[in-house]
Specification:
Elements lengths: L1 E6 L9 E6 L8 H9 L3 H7 L10 E5 L8 E6 L8 H17 L4 E5 L9 H15 L19 E6 L2 H29 L7 H11 L5 E6 L1 H7 L2 H7 L7 E8 L8 E5 L1 E5 L19 H15 L5 E11 L11 E3 L5 E3 L7 H12 L6 E6 L3 H7 L4 E5 L2 H14 L3 E3 L17 E2 L7 H10 L7 E5 L5 E2 L9 E2 L4 H12 L1
Parallel strand pairs: 1-6, 2-4, 2-5, 5-6, 9-11, 9-14, 10-11, 13-17, 14-18, 15-16
Antiparallel strand pairs: 3-4, 7-8, 8-11, 12-13, 15-18, 19-20
Length: about 500
């Protein structure tokens, strides 16, 4: 889909449809809606007078222009109450408008960002509008073959602006929104792919594909090298599968040579059956998404390189399947991790934290300025926080606060859970250093506490994305299925870091 920014008025747009916004409770049209209404002899205001349209959040009204202006259709989108408008609602409103345009089988549309006086900065509004349109129109359809020619698509979105001084700002912000959305698309495609089409080797190939034309160095560590490094935790989980494990390493050097990088680690379990501690059959198909953290790391590195973020970033993905093969690791096994610390396996379905332990040890080689991991780690986090919120735990208050700020800006919500020493006893093992599960109570916390034992002396935050990585139903600008959660959050964090 093409995104363009053009100088001009909506009435002269060459698009078949145009979009304007209207606030709830306002009897008078504002901004571009008021201007366009005059051009259309009051057709838009008639919707309000007749009570057909009230401006409620994400409400839509459709007007045929009857040849009064160049576009054939006007879609009016409700913005809700004016004093409650924020960037998240801007994304949702533009997504709703774009989906309405698609349902009408219209291929292109234009919009103005002028909805009346608001306190939102125009660059943020432009970026959010583009994100809303692109992310809202996403669908995963590569395997659809029947009636494929009937799939409706929107090919072009144009932002119209009359003020020359704003054009440059809007163009730059729209490009940022497009770059980030493209990275989220790539991430969603990786997560949504069936596991027979997304093995550890294929995930490594997809990372290679993503960075062919980007300034990111890719390294793939295969099984023989893992054995030499002593990655027995990752190798232990991989034993039950015929698919060889991969440690995927991505290095983006946007900063000074020798500058300590921010290291992002993403769980990359391309299919998780639970291993010997096998999962129930219901919804096991969704366990193709257990590499969502790894996919988000790839997407974050893509966007960071395209945005030329001016410091060094490293991405690390321990990738494997977790299957109950004849050689699979078993409850009661003890694994010696790369760090030298030993892990007693009580439950083979608590494999994510085991593979991350070795990834953390490898991350130590970079002497990170900070490390953040993203992982679909625990069902317990979904029980605690629901499907829409990322669980956040970590050792550094400053880093956690920066993530909170990024969360507010992106709408990818995080909520902190405590890492209290009182729970340490739950993961101590009689036979090894640690056991890989502390039981059902506080499961998200004890999983993070386990991870903390393999973190060096640097700022670290763990993000449990198990809930929002895969959605059961549509959200305002996120279709059900793979959400790509974590990419926009991390990119916003990294952009703020540079400021």
């Amino acid at each position: 889909m093409k995104v363009k920014v053009k100088k001009g008025e909506l009435r002269n747009s060459q698009s078949k449809a145009v979009v304007v916004g209207q606030f709830e409770g306002s009897k008078n049209l504002e901004g571009s809606a008021a201007v366009l209404d005059k051009n259309c002899d009051g057709l838009i205001s008639d919707l309000i007078k007749d009570g057909v349209f009230q401006g409620k959040l994400f409400e839509t009204g459709i007007v045929n222009t009857r040849g009064l202006i160049m576009p054939d259709w006007v879609v009016v989108i409700g913005l809700g109450k004016k004093n409650e408008l924020n960037l998240e609602k801007v994304r949702g409103a533009f997504s709703k408008a774009a989906r309405t345009i698609r349902d009408l089988n219209i291929k292109d549309f234009s919009a103005s960002l002028d909805s009346g006086n608001t306190d939102l900065p125009i660059d943020k509004v432009a970026q959010s509008a583009v994100e809303g349109v692109l992310l809202g129109l996403y669908r995963f359809v590569p395997f659809k073959t029947i009636e494929r020619d009937q799939i409706k698509e929107v090919n072009e979105f144009v932002i119209m602006e009359t003020k020359p001084d704003l054009l440059k700002i809007i163009k730059s912000a729209a490009k940022t929104g497009e770059i980030i959305s493209d990275a989220v698309y790539y991430t969603r495609d990786l997560v949504a792919a069936p596991s027979n089409e997304m093995t550890p080797s294929i995930l490594a190939d997809k990372a290679r594909e993503a960075f062919v034309k980007r300034p990111v160095e890719l390294k793939i560590i295969s099984e023989p090298a893992m054995k030499k490094l002593g990655m027995n935790a990752l190798l232990g989980v991989a034993r039950g599968s015929n698919e060889p494990p991969k440690l995927i390493i991505m290095e983006y050097n946007g900063g000074k040579k020798g500058e300590r990088p921010v290291v992002l680690v993403g769980k990359g379990i391309t299919f998780d059956s639970g291993g010997i501690s096998i999962k129930p059959a219901d919804s096991m198909d969704e366990m193709k998404t257990d590499m969502s953290g790894g996919a988000a790391v790839i997407g974050t590195l893509m966007a960071s390189a395209d945005l030329r973020i001016p410091f060094n970033i490293v991405g690390i993905i321990p990738a494997t399947e977790n299957l109950p093969g004849g050689n699979a690791y078993k409850p009661g096994d003890i694994l010696k991790s790369m760090s030298g610390k030993t892990i007693e396996v009580l439950n083979t379905d608590a494999e994510g934290r085991v593979v991350l332990a070795d990834a953390f040890a490898y991350a130590n080689r970079y002497n990170p300025a900070a490390m953040i991991d993203m992982a679909t780690l625990t069902g317990a986090c979904i029980i605690a926080l629901g499907d829409l919120i990322v669980g956040m735990m970590g050792t550094d208050e400053g880093l956690k606060n920066m993530i909170r700020v990024a969360s507010e800006a992106t709408g990818e919500k995080v909520w902190e859970l405590p890492l209290w020493e009182e729970y340490d006893e739950l993961i101590k093992s009689d036979a090894a250093d640690f056991k890989n599960t502390g039981g059902r109570a506080g499961g998200a916390i004890t999983a993070a506490l386990f991870l903390s034992k393999f973190v060096g002396d640097y700022p670290w935050v763990h993000l449990d994305i198990a809930g929002p990585a895969w959605l059961k139903k549509d959200r305002p600008y996120i279709s059900k299925g793979a959400s790509g959660v974590g990419v926009r959050l991390m990119v916003e964090l990294l952009r703020n870091w540079t400021r």
